[in-house]
């Protein structure tokens, strides 16, 4: 099992009973970019730069630790904590926190750290790199707030600088503490910067005073608190306000706390007993199964994640837990390669052509919940010395759910709930591609409400919004499974329809759209009847998505020219 843990890439740090690093896995050494020999024997966690804020940034500082044991709070507020501080904390209870990690090459990572006490008086830390997951969530959030300058950087500490006066004018509550300010509403000069780092900060301020549009200026420095305590801060700033002559006046930015970078490396003792304890007490689900495919052993974390007892799992086929999910495409039209079947993956591990195999899969739990996990398979040995397989099952449900939520928000219209232009264009590309592969035809109907401005002018925007929602519901009720109704913006909608065999089928759809829209709408004090100018276009695969949409747009203008309240085809 020890060799499997090394081969799996798991990043583990072991502290002995004095708080010194006794062992680190190769996976951890790769994570921080240092040689294991540099880390063993250290009594401080030099790579621990400080706890990372929550996934929503400055408005979500992460878990409330006010009720945590004092030893926990002390650990999470100390720069480069001593190993003894970790021991004090885990003796008061398990510690779980996201922290900023500094690599030897200067690169910064975000890692999830689980620290737990061992039976010999030491501690074991599991360090998982979650930088990619956070980067993915940040990218999706950026799609929702491109007008906000600070979103391009990080959701940590937000601040505003007066470039002329050289003052930090404002920072959020967390930023006041991070940047060495006594409160979020008190302005102090940049003199809180450590004297040795002041030249670098001054260069950064000078760069901001001449920065062009969109230019980001970065700086790393120390700030000195009221009691002489120092905190490392990394900032990314951009100009937010300019004077009449275009000169930069103010800048906004974000700051990360790098103080608690962990400097000491942990080490595993190397004994099978310690590795077995890691298996049993590890915060990530694990299972051990033999070449015959039956589960030999599971740990408590796996049972908790799966909501099942160990007695139910031991002896069961491992394939039930580690097989990849079924092909979600159904028609085989997807571009993603299918995951290797479990038997093929295990053969690769046995033959040495792969050290570890990763896959994501879904679990339907007894409680009715759906959970997602990343399953990592590696080769190890059983208690009898026979080859066996070790699987790590990491819960990624929250990450998947957040990504799906942000993706939906980025691809849907907030007023009507319909897909937006980006989603419509994506669906149109899919429909045209499917038609080109299989034939059958696809169509686009461009719907523009007639005289919608009159509704807003006479009844108010609230009534106009209600009318748009009503039209959206009607169009949604018209489309078939596999088709799409979307709002492009304003009073414009589009329908993307697959399997439209000919012009007659297209005409039937257009007639239904016009008929459905003209049904009277009750807007509270008034009942109104609206009409629409509809442009329809169909292709057997000879038109590109852009050409098909342009054809429908032209046809819509022909319908307007024909007197509105009708449809025309291109």
Automatic annotation (TrEMBL):
* Residue span, PAS domain: 1-45
* Region entry Disordered, spans: 51-70
Residue limits of the PAC domain?
217-270, 357-408
**Domain GGDEF: from-to ranges:** 440-570
Instruction: List the InterPro entries hit by this protein, alphabetically.
Output: Biofilm_reg_signaling, GGDEF_dom, Nucleotide_cyclase, PAC, PAS, PAS-assoc_C, PAS-like_dom_sf, PAS_fold_3
Pfam families xref list: GGDEF (PF00990), PAS_3 (PF08447), PAS_9 (PF13426)
Where on the tree of life does the source sit, at the highest rank? Bacteria
Question: Known NCBIfam families for this protein?
Answer: GGDEF (TIGR00254), sensory_box (TIGR00229)
* Protein name according to UniProt: Diguanylate cyclase (GGDEF)-like protein/PAS domain S-box-containing protein
Record organism? Kineococcus aurantiacus
Q: List the lineage, top down.
A: Bacteria, Bacillati, Actinomycetota, Actinomycetes, Kineosporiales
């Amino acid at each position: 099992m020890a060799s499997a843990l090394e081969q799996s890439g798991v990043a583990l740090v072991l502290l002995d009973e004095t708080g010194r690093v006794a062992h680190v896995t190769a996976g951890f050494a790769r994570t921080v970019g240092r040689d294991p020999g540099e880390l063993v024997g250290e009594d401080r966690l030099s790579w621990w730069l400080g706890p990372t804020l929550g996934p929503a940034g400055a408005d979500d500082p992460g878990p409330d630790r006010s009720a945590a044991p004092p030893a926990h709070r002390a650990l999470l507020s100390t720069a480069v904590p001593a190993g003894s501080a970790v021991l004090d904390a885990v003796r008061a209870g398990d510690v779980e926190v996201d922290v900023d990690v500094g690599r030897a090459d200067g690169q910064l990572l975000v890692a999830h750290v689980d620290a737990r006490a061992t039976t010999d008086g030491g501690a074991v830390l599991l360090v998982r790199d979650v930088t990619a997951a956070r980067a993915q969530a940040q990218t999706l959030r950026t799609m929702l707030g491109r007008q906000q300058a600070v979103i391009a950087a990080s959701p940590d500490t937000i601040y505003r600088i007066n470039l002329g006066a050289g003052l930090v004018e404002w920072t959020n509550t967390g930023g006041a503490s991070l940047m060495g300010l006594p409160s979020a509403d008190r302005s102090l000069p940049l003199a809180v910067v450590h004297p040795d780092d002041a030249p670098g900060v001054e260069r950064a301020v000078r760069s901001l005073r001449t920065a062009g549009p969109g230019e980001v200026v970065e700086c790393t420095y120390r700030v000195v608190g009221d009691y002489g305590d120092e905190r490392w801060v990394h900032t990314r700033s951009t100009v937010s306000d300019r004077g009449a002559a275009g000169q930069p006046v103010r800048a906004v930015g974000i700051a990360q706390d790098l103080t608690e970078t962990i400097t000491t490396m942990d080490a595993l003792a190397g004994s099978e007993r310690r590795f077995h304890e890691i298996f049993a007490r590890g915060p990530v689900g694990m299972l051990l199964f033999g070449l015959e495919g039956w589960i030999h052993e599971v740990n408590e974390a796996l049972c908790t994640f799966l909501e099942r007892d160990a007695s139910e799992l031991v002896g069961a086929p491992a394939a039930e837990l580690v097989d990849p999910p079924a092909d979600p495409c159904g028609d085989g039209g997807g571009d993603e390669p299918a995951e290797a079947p479990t038997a093929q993956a295990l053969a690769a591990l046995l033959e040495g052509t792969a050290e570890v195999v990763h896959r994501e899969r879904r679990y339907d739990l007894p409680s009715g919940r759906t959970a997602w996990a990343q399953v990592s398979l590696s080769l190890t040995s059983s208690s009898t010395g026979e080859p066996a397989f070790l699987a790590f099952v990491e819960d990624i449900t929250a990450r998947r759910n957040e990504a799906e939520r942000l993706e939906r928000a980025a691809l849907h219209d907030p007023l009507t709930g319909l897909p937006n232009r980006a989603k419509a264009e994506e669906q149109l590309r899919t429909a045209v591609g499917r038609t080109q592969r299989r034939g059958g035809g696809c169509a686009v109907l461009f719907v523009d409400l007639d005289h919608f401005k009159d509704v807003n002018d006479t009844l108010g925007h609230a009534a106009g919004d209600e009318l748009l929602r009503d039209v959206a519901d009607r169009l949604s009720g018209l489309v078939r499974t596999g088709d799409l109704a979307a709002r492009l913006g304003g009073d414009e909608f589009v329908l993307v329809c697959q399997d439209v065999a000919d012009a007659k089928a297209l005409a039937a759809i257009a007639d239904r759209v016009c008929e459905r829209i003209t049904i009277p709408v009750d807007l509270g004090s008034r009942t109104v009847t609206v009409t629409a100018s509809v442009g329809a276009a169909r292709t057997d695969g000879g038109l590109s998505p852009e050409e098909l949409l342009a054809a429908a747009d032209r046809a819509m203008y022909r319908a307007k020219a024909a007197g509105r309240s009708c449809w025309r085809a291109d």
